[in-house]
TrEMBL record:
Keyword list, A-Z: Cytoplasm, GTP-binding, Hydrolase, Nucleotide-binding, Ribonucleoprotein, RNA-binding, Signal recognition particle
Protein name listed in UniProt: Signal recognition particle protein
GO biological process: SRP-dependent cotranslational protein targeting to membrane
SUPFAM superfamilies (UniProt xref): P-loop containing nucleoside triphosphate hydrolases (SSF52540), Signal peptide-binding domain (SSF47446)
Protein family according to the UniProt entry: Belongs to the GTP-binding SRP family. SRP54 subfamily.
Lineage: Bacteria, Pseudomonadati, Bacteroidota, Flavobacteriia, Flavobacteriales
UniProt organism field: Siansivirga zeaxanthinifaciens CC-SAMT-1
Gene of this entry: ffh
Length: 436
């Protein structure tokens, strides 16, 4: 018996758990989550293809907790997509020059302050801020306000309209005054244009910064990608700063930017305050993009859909008089999985309401399962052939008695009859039968 049981269980492992249909369904949801989070369509599609391959390769279908494994695969793959471990900033120069680039309003000035504050608190780091946004006097004032807040000196030259000259002078000032980090804040435009690109490119060529950072507003979604590409073409920047992640954006732009320009995201901005800066961690971002709770629940939803589909198939079989012991068994597996007999009854189309107050012990299934496992496939799908000698064999094989086998057959026949009746004509006939 034990051998047969093992074999049957092995076959059944896939039953009632996630199926290939579920995997597809789940991946569709994941893709939707990515698109909602502003991930580029092609990237999202490639991504789900890779996850599918992995899921099938790892035999997700036959594991005990397919849902959890799916979630893990999705998360790992997403994390990898956004880059491995957090990458720091190159501070090898003396002074180390960090150049900010990005559109107007992306958060360059704010981030310059945040970064200066962040580095200032490290051992032996002495940052200087340099104001190279020469078009608006208010921009220079803004950097001075920021510098005042964090106690970092700001170098500026209001009479000078040449950002290249100011940046050079700023670096010279740093050297002369013992600053070992120079953060250069620049001007941006509302959209990519040639004048801005030429200007930032000229500064870049003139000062040869150790680190060129591209600052981007995460709320701008898909546009952020085009901007990133334009800046990268000109500057070949070293890293991306994703700002305004405190908003309700899911930050999918992070994935797309990373995929398109293949540069690491180094820091994120999570608020207007100077302390609202965080090192970028791909795995945390993956959680955010997927909304971990969402993914877990969508996997569960896919599972429910699967159950519904099974119920529909079952209904068809009943209608065609093809309901057999294999179906009976898979119903039992389902109930046991759910841990409640009432639920099983609920799955029998039409029977749920009538039987909802009946309580049945889970242990009651043990004998039933053993008997069914001892049947041949032919006997399971065609119980009519069960004669005395077959029953005897099954009783022996299952460690039960012929009486118990007969009892199960009786129950099975009653159930089939009842289900058949539910199908054609419904509860009315049933009530009549019970009365009569
Ligand atoms: P710049 O034009 O690139 O220098 O952008 P600013 O640094 O002036 O920032 C533009 C606006 O975005 C300002 O109102 C900032 O306070 C705000 N800002 C910048 N970074 C963040 C952030 O991470 N979160 C939030 N909520 N606002 C930010
Ligand atoms: Mg600014």
């Amino acid at each position: 018996l034990s051998d047969k049981l093992d074999k049957a269980l092995h076959v059944l492992k896939g039953h009632g758990s996630i199926t290939e249909v579920n995997v597809a369904e789940t991946l569709k949801e994941v893709r939707r989550a990515l698109l909602d989070a502003d991930v580029n369509f092609k990237i999202a599609k490639d991504f789900t293809t890779r996850v599918k391959e992995k899921a099938l390769g790892q035999n997700v279908l036959t594991t005990l907790q397919p849902g959890q494994l799916m979630v893990k695969i999705v998360k790992d793959e997403l994390t990898e997509l956004m880059g491995g471990d957090a990458e720091g900033i190159n501070l090898s120069g003396n002074p180390s020059v960090i150049l900010m680039s990005g559109l107007q309003g992306s958060g360059k000035t704010t981030f310059s302050g945040k970064l200066a504050n962040y580095l200032k608190n490290k051992k032996n780091k002495k940052p200087l801020l340099v104001a190279c946004d020469v078009y608006r006097p208010a921009a220079i004032d803004q950097l001075h306000v920021v510098g005042g807040q964090i106690g970092v000196e700001v170098y500026s030259d209001k009479g000078n309209s040449d950002p290249v000259a100011i940046s050079k002078a700023g670096i010279a000032h740093a050297k002369a005054n013992g600053y070992n980090i120079v953060i250069i804040d620049t001007a941006g435009r509302l959209a990519v244009d040639e004048a801005m690109m030429t200007e930032i490119s000229n500064i870049h060529k003139a000062i040869k910064p150790q680190e060129t950072l591209f600052v981007v507003d995460s709320m701008t979604g898909q546009d952020a990608v085009n901007t990133a590409k334009a800046f990268n073409d000109v500057l070949n920047f070293d890293g991306v700063i994703l700002t305004k992640l405190d908003g309700d954006t899911r930050g999918g732009a992070a994935i797309t930017i990373k995929s398109v320009v293949n540069k690491p995201i180094k820091f994120i901005g999570t608020g207007e305050k100077m302390e609202a800066i965080d090192v970028f961690y791909p795995s945390r971002m993956a959680d955010r993009i997927l909304g971990m709770g969402d993914v877990v629940s969508l996997v569960e939803r896919a599972q429910e859909q699967f159950d519904e589909e099974e119920a529909r198939k079952l209904q068809k079989k009943i209608a065609k008089n093809q309901f057999g012991f294999d179906d009976f068994l898979s119903q039992i597996q389902q109930i046991k999985k759910m841990g409640n007999m009432k639920d099983l009854m609920g799955m029998i189309p039409g029977a749920g309401k009538m039987l909802k107050d009946v309580d049945i012990d889970d242990d009651a299934f043990k004998g039933i399962e053993a008997i069914i496992y001892s049947m041949t496939p032919k006997e399971r799908s065609n119980p009519g052939i069960l004669n005395a000698s077959r029953k005897q064999r099954i009783g022996k094989g299952s460690g039960t008695s012929v009486q118990q086998v007969n009892q199960l057959l009786k129950q099975f026949n009653q159930m089939s009859k009842m289900m058949k009746m539910m199908q054609g004509g419904g509860a009315k006939k049933m009530m009549q039968m019970m009365k009569g």
